[in-house]
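Lab notebook: predicted structure, single chain.

Context: the supervisor wants predicted structures on file for every construct in the current expression panel, including those that have not yet been purified. This is the next one on the list. No modifications to the sequence; it matches the entry in the shared construct table.
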Amino acid sequence: MFNKKNSLLETYISKDVTIKGELTTEGLVRIDGNFEGNILVDGLIIGKTGDVKGEVTAREIMIDGNIEGNINAKEIIEIKPDGKVQGDIQTVKLIIAEGAFFVGRSTMQKPQETLPEQDEQGKQDEQGENKVKKLFKSISIFF
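Prediction complete. Output recorded below exactly as produced.
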């Protein structure tokens, strides 16, 4: 999912931090601390010490920590061997590693198709999606 070339995170919540509220950004977020509330981001990484309680919506999500709440990803959710999810999942692609913990329902969605008359905004959105994919690939070195 992440490449090693672009490893910049827009937001990082370290393991000693606890936040309650709502998190919204168009960039990549890594949570190693505690977060309680709803999350709406492009890319999300929950590190081994990360603990999230709330609804999560993102394009791509990697879970190596704990999430309690429903998750919706436009492209992919990956639950790593130490990852724990308690809640329902909706996504196009779901990867659950051996040893991962998942209690809930998973609903697979069809990939979004691009219409031929895609406008400039659609092209910009696609470029943003590619940027997030590259960032995800670069962050995998942290796992």
